[in-house]
């Protein structure tokens, strides 16, 4: 039986040699390769500063610390993402204020932002879910109108663009993940992009135990440093990221062409101003039209060797801890709740061939025709 994995982390002999070289150098943490990776990322994105850290969650945490978020503040963010988007806010004592999502893009519903802004609101955190940018022109317009800071969660969106601008060059601070499954990975890791000198300096100090010089601690900081091995992996992949994203986009377009005419399957929508880099290719399943639910379809695909996932099965505010902390209840985020029950991520990773995509589409067609 053919096996079609959802994710295949990038790996080649250059990466192997780079890792061995780091080990032999005995300079394992935050040395020349981390600096080089930061410089090359900044050039790629088109921003002034990049600060590498050891996870996307750490990147978000440092971003909120850099803007001074505390228990007196509220941060407006999406109800539908990986929980780290909200956890990083809570780490600072600030309160996440969740907004329902746009049913087509799965990103924050910009029409609902202004009604939640008050004197406690410090920032907006848009999440570029699955690799599709939010409507950044309108978000920046709202932020400027009310004097708010924009912290972008771009964990899944390296290489994505909005209105011709790279994500990472638009908001005040943008946070990326380089976790093993991401379009550009370092095994584990992340980085922060900003054009603000003050934020960049504060983040650099905070990621290294609050030091602004060896053993000179001016803040209560954290051990959020990136290793040289992580940077070595990332430097090599950065040279390939546009090519790999292009293949992802091609694969997504091909799968959409194959699936879009199936009644009951809703293929991904792409905003006309967005370059979507398809960290995940996510369809919706209309159970009434196709005659079986999402979870049953997933089981049948797995039986045929096709790996899938659900990103994500529950909106963040309906996670048990968030219901307990903030008293959120079912029914408060109807679009996110509906989408979470219908979505399914299919493989489009850049190491798949057209024959693999045909196998996915053919298998879905046969399942729906009850030929399996």
Can you put this structure into words, describing what you see?
By secondary structure, the protein is an alpha/beta fold. The protein folds into two domains: 13-100 and 107-238, Type I PLP-dependent aspartate aminotransferase-like (Major domain) (Aspartate Aminotransferase, domain 2, 3-Layer(aba) Sandwich), CATH 3.40.640; 242-368, Aspartate Aminotransferase, domain 1 (Alpha-Beta Complex). The chain contains 13 helices and 13 strands. Helix 3 runs parallel beside helix 4 (84-91) and helix 3 packs across helix 6 (197-206). The longest helix has 19 residues, at 241-259.
Whole-number count of domains? 2
Oligomer: single chain
CA gyration radius, whole angstroms:
21 Å
Q: Which CATH-level-2 architecture of the largest domain?
A: 3-Layer(aba) Sandwich
Largest sheet: 7 strands, mixed
| β-strand amount | 5-15%
Summarize model confidence as the mean pLDDT. Answer: 97
Which range best describes the helical content: under 10%, 10-25%, 25-40%, 40-55%, 55-70% or over 70%?
25-40%
Query: CATH-wise, what's the superfamily of the largest domain?
Result: Type I PLP-dependent aspartate aminotransferase-like (Major domain)
Poorly predicted runs:
none
Count the E strands: 13
């Amino acid at each position: 039986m053919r096996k079609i994995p959802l994710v295949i982390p990038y790996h080649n002999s250059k990466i192997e040699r780079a890792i061995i070289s780091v080990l032999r150098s005995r300079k394992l943490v935050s040395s020349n390769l981390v600096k080089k990776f930061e410089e090359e990322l900044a050039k790629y994105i088109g921003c002034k500063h990049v600060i590498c850290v050891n996870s996307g969650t750490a990147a978000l945490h440092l971003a909120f610390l850099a803007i001074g978020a505390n228990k007196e503040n509220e941060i407006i963010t999406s109800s539908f993402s990986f929980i780290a988007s909200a956890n990083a806010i809570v780490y600072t004592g600030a309160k996440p204020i969740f907004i329902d999502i746009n049913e087509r893009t799965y990103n924050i519903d910009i029409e609902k932002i202004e009604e939640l802004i008050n004197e406690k609101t410090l920032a907006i955190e848009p999440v570029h879910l699955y690799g599709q940018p939010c409507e950044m022109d309108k978000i920046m317009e709202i932020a400027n109108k009310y004097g708010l800071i924009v912290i972008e969660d771009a964990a899944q969106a390296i290489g994505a663009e909005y209105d011709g601008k790279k994500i990472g060059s638009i908001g005040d601070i943008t946070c990326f993940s380089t976790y093993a499954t991401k379009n550009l990975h370092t095994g584990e890791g992340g980085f922060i992009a900003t054009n603000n000198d003050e934020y960049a300096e504060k983040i650099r100090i905070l990621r290294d135990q609050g030091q602004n010089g060896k053993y000179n601690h001016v803040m209560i900081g954290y051990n959020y440093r990136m290793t040289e091995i992580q940077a070595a992996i990332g430097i090599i992949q950065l040279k390939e990221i546009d090519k790999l994203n292009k293949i992802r986009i091609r694969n997504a377009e091909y799968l959409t062409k194959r699936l879009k005419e199936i009644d009951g399957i809703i293929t991904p929508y792409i905003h006309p101003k967005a370059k979507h880099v398809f960290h995940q290719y996510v369809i919706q399943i209309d159970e009434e039209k196709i005659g079986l639910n999402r979870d049953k379809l997933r089981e049948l695909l797995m039986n045929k060797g096709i790996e899938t996932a659900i990103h994500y099965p529950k909106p963040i505010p309906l996670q048990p801890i968030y219901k307990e902390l903030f008293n959120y209840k079912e029914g408060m985020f109807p679009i996110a709740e509906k989408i979470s029950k219908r979505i399914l991520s299919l493989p489009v990773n850049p190491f798949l061939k057209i024959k693999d995509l045909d196998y996915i589409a053919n298998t879905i067609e046969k399942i729906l025709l009850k030929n399996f």
